[in-house]
């Protein structure tokens, strides 16, 4: 088979020879042979066993294996010595392990849906010519060499070389990202295959006309298939949260296992029984591992994603919430994201004076010529407030302006006119209109495209001037002035014809002796909320980078209007043209980014990947916006892929982590703030949960080192980790952002969730306070009951159960003071409003209620093996609330005074 690099460069007459086909189509034997050789015309799906690999990955991580091992030991111990509660402990540990596996697995099973979205671009049936007969076949049965017939409204099923065309117009936007239509022809072409005007591309649609083409690439060999493979094969690096949770699990697991083994060995060496040592080792491990922490992470992210949904931000990957809060750079496009995507005529410019055109006849002639060169049709359905015409937004804006200034333009939309569709390579379109004896050829497009074709220039009064260097320079200056104001500029030219042109005459034959009628300036207004949103990002230390296909002057003006560039800042250092970007190697692009480039103009969607990789090489966390099929690799390569919900394609939306339902940049800023709040809340509840580990571990250490009873049992520890601690931790995960959160720089890429300041606060301060106070109360109850040093107590002894019950109740109550203090990193916690977070209030109520129930409610006491104490002793346990809260307030005050991180 021929290579795609050859197929568009040969004349139509040679296509069948290259593809070993015939004009009357392949015969059944040839079709079957090629299908066996190349496979069906469908994209490669992800592995059907991918779900099993994901499940295995989470089932065999350190945390899960540790809990499974501990559960297994519990089951063995229960079989050896039943009735000790070890079986219940084993089931509890196994349940926590399964819960964590399912949470993590559910988060990842949304992957690879981009492949399913890509499949929806392909039709189920197509028309082909085989063995001289035209028939319909399934799209997946196409093979190279098939003769494909297409018409208006068809979705193209494979890459095919056009050999016959009747006014064929296609929309390649799903592949190229360009929203303009593309006219096709059968003649040979040079240059890149993706830009060839003689190729039908899989996944794209036919807007008008009919044609015959020969298939040369199917399935994953098509251009769409290559993008799908690239999108699938791009491996996104682990998110900041994935790295941090993985590290935290490893650290806590290592601490738990090492401590358990050390003291198991110590117990064996000191002559304690194997049974006591096993129970003791399990207690150390269970006390060190915060079983409820990972589910709390997931719930915090889930609740944040629900809040973002109310702000028009749809989160598809939960971890992307936190990743968005960690971004250093946001790469955004212009149209619809920074602007309203509502084109409106702002000025008609006299090409001779360069000023606004003020003569009615001149304005009428300019607008009529522009409409003749447009592809505009009456709207098929009319809703209240909707435009009366359909077509390109530019053409609709022209029609609306004509209707407002002159009158309805219906006479210019007669079916007898001839239209030459917009040519992407030449960046212009044209049309012929006949009315009576007057025949007019009109053309409109980019000024750079029309400038070489201009022979004369017409002023507003209808006078013609020779298009010499001096008069053209006036137009150059006008275009530059308007573009630098952020406006889109369209040049319009025309000439009168003596007779109607031959229907088969190419547009190029009419493009001579053109008279420039004027320039049309259009505005796409900046969204009013965008400058403030960009300012908030910059105040938060986040760089905003604009990537657009517009003219550099327009890109610069929009960047200045939005605040991406300062008004007095020179553009030479900050704006990079797409042609220069194409030539730059990655290391040189990295240098330009380091020098401060913030605007990329006249870029292609393919260049987004190059920008993403260069920014990541600088160590930045990158968020990238996109809407087209060919944006999907860049969306996956970025740390956070953001697709447009209103204007984007299904493929971009499926490849992204986040979808903006309103296509609004300000929604990204809201997501950044929410992501930062999530990370801050994670630090809050991690500190809160880890603080109770020390009073859980301390009884086991005293028990192995001193002749004293065990102050907490394993079941009692689980009642804290999976009971009373869970709801307040979830409440801390819902705390709103602090006021100065968006005035702080983004955290460093290597900043830890389980940092030394956090561990110091949790273990060496809060944990030690709780351990000391709870153990004092434990020994107080024993002393009041007549216990003597070194005396052993049975687990069923009422004195022992009362002492452990009070220890458990004291830890629960001290966690009330801890959760209030954790609400603010620098303040007391009460300053945020005690009744503002209902989940925390509910969690506090549960902790207080259970602190009473473990001592005085028989059903709870029987499960946890606790007993009652005198009310005055229980009242002493309440002193733990102001003790923890007050001492932590002193610590925060001293930390702020000495400029330390307080946490």
From TrEMBL:
Residues spanning the membrane: 59-80, 86-106, 251-269, 275-301, 753-782, 802-821, 833-856, 871-890
Keywords: ATP-binding, Cell membrane, Membrane, Nucleotide-binding, Translocase, Transmembrane, Transmembrane helix
Record family assignment: Belongs to the cation transport ATPase (P-type) (TC 3.A.3) family. Type IIA subfamily.
Localization per Swiss-Prot or TrEMBL: Cell membrane
Residue ranges of domain Cation-transporting P-type ATPase N-terminal in the record: 6-79
Claim: Membrane is one of the keywords in the record: yes
Name used for this protein in its record: ATPase, P-type (Transporting), HAD superfamily, subfamily IC
UniProt-listed PROSITE patterns: ATPASE_E1_E2 (PS00154)
GO CC, any one term: plasma membrane
SMART domains: Cation_ATPase_N
Topology in membrane: Multi-pass membrane protein
UniProt cross-references to InterPro entries, sorted A to Z: ATPase_P-typ_cation-transptr_C, ATPase_P-typ_cation-transptr_N, ATPase_P-typ_cyto_dom_N, ATPase_P-typ_P_site, ATPase_P-typ_TM_dom_sf, ATPase_P-typ_transduc_dom_A_sf, ATPase_P-type_domA, Cation_transp_ATPase_P-type
Superkingdom of origin: Bacteria
GO molecular function annotations of the record: ATP binding; ATP hydrolysis activity; P-type ion transporter activity
Native source organism of the sequence: Allochromatium vinosum (strain ATCC 17899 / DSM 180 / NBRC 103801 / NCIMB 10441 / D) (Chromatium vinosum)
């Amino acid at each position: 088979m021929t290579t795609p690099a050859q197929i568009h460069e040969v004349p139509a007459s040679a296509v069948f020879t290259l593809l070993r086909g015939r004009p009357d189509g392949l015969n059944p034997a040839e079709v079957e042979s090629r299908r066996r050789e190349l496979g069906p015309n469908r994209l490669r799906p992800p592995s059907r066993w991918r779900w099993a690999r994901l499940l295995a990955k989470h089932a065999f991580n350190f945390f899960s294996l540790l809990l499974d091992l501990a559960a297994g030991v519990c089951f063995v111990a229960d079989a050896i010595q039943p009735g000790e509660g070890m079986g219940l402990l084993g089931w509890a540990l196994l349940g926590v392990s399964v819960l964590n596996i399912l949470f993590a697995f559910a988060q990842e099973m949304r992957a690879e849906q981009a492949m399913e979205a890509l499949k929806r671009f392909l039709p189920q049936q197509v028309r082909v010519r085989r063995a001289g007969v035209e028939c319909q076949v399934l799209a997946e049965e196409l093979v190279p060499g098939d003769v494909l017939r297409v018409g208006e409204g068809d979705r193209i099923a494979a890459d095919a070389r056009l050999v016959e065309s009747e006014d064929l117009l296609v929309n390649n936007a799903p592949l190229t990202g360009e929203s303009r239509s593309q006219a096709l022809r059968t003649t040979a072409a040079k240059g890149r295959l993706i830009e060839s005007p003689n190729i039908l591309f899989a996944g794209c649609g036919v807007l008008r006309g009919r044609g015959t083409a020969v298939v040369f690439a199917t399935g994953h060999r098509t251009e769409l298939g290559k993008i799908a493979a690239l999108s699938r094969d791009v491996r996104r690096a682990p998110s900041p949260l994935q790295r941090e949770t993985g590290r935290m699990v490893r650290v806590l697991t290592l601490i738990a296992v090492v401590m358990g083994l050390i003291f198991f060995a110590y117990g064996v060496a000191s002559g304690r029984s194997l049974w006591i040592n096993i129970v003791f080792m399990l207690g150390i491990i269970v006390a060190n591992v915060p079983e409820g922490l990972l589910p709390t992470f997931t719930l915090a992210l889930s609740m944040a994603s629900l809040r973002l949904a109310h702000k028009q931000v749809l989160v598809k990957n939960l971890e992307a919430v936190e990743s968005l809060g960690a971004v250093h750079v946001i790469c955004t496009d212009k149209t619809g994201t920074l602007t309203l995507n509502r084109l409106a005529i702002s000025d008609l410019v006299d090409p001779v004076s360069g000023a606004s055109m003020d003569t009615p006849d001149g304005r009428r002639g300019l607008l009529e010529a522009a409409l003749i060169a447009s592809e505009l049709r009456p709207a098929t359905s009319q809703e209240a407030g909707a435009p009366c015409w359909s077509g390109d937004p530019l053409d609709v804006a022209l029609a609306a302006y004509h209707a407002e200034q002159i009158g309805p333009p219906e006479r210019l939309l007669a079916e007898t006119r001839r239209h030459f569709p917009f040519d992407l390579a030449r960046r212009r379109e044209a049309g012929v209109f006949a009315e009576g004896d007057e025949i007019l050829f009109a053309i409109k497009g980019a000024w750079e495209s029309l400038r070489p074709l201009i022979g004369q220039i017409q002023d507003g009064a209808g006078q013609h001037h020779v298009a010499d260097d001096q008069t053209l320079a006036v137009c150059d200056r006008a275009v530059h002035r308007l573009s630098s104001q952020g406006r889109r500029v369209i040049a319009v030219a025309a000439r009168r014809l003596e007779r109607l042109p031959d229907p088969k005459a190419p547009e190029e034959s009419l493009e001579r002796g053109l008279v420039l009628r004027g320039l049309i300036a259009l505005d796409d207004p900046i969204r009013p909320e965008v400058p403030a949103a960009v300012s908030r990002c910059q105040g938060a230390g986040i760089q905003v980078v604009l990537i657009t296909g517009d003219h550099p002057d327009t890109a610069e003006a929009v960047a200045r209007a939005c605040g991406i560039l300062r008004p007095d800042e020179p553009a030479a250092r900050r704006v990079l043209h797409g042609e220069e970007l194409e030539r730059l190697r990655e290391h040189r692009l990295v240098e330009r980014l380091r020098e401060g480039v913030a605007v990329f103009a006249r870029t292609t969607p393919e260049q987004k990947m190059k920008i993403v990789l260069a920014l990541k090489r600088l160590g930045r966390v990158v968020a990238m916006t996109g809407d087209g099929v060919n944006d999907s690799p860049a969306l996956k390569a970025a740390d956070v892929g953001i697709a447009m919900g209103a204007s984007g394609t299904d493929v971009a939306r499926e490849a992204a982590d986040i979808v903006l339902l309103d296509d609004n940049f300000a929604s990204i800023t809201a997501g950044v703030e929410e992501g930062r709040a999530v990370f801050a809340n994670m630090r809050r509840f991690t500190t809160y949960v880890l603080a109770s580990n020390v009073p859980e571990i301390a009884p086991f250490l005293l028990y192995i080192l001193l002749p004293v009873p065990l102050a907490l049992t394993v079941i009692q520890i689980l009642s804290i980790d999976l009971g009373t601690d869970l709801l307040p931790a979830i409440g801390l995960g819902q705390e709103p952002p602090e006021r100065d959160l968006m005035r702080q720089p983004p955290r460093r890429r290597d900043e830890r969730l389980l940092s030394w300041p956090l561990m110091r606060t949790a273990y060496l301060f809060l944990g030690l306070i709780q351990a000391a106070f709870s153990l004092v109360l434990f020994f107080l109850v024993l002393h009041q009951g007549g216990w003597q040093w070194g005396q052993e107590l049975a687990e069923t002894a009422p004195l022992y159960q009362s002492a452990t019950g009070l220890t458990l109740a004291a830890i629960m109550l001290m966690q009330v003071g801890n959760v209030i203090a954790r609400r603010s990193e620098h303040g007391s916690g009460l300053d945020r409003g005690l009744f503002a977070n209902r989940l925390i209030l509910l969690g506090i109520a549960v902790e207080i209620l259970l602190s009473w129930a473990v001592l005085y409610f028989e059903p709870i006491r029987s499960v946890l093996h606790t007993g009652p104490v005198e009310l005055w002793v229980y009242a002493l346990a309440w002193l733990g609330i102001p003790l923890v809260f007050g001492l932590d307030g002193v610590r925060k005050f001293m930390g702020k005074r000495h400029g330390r991180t307080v946490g």
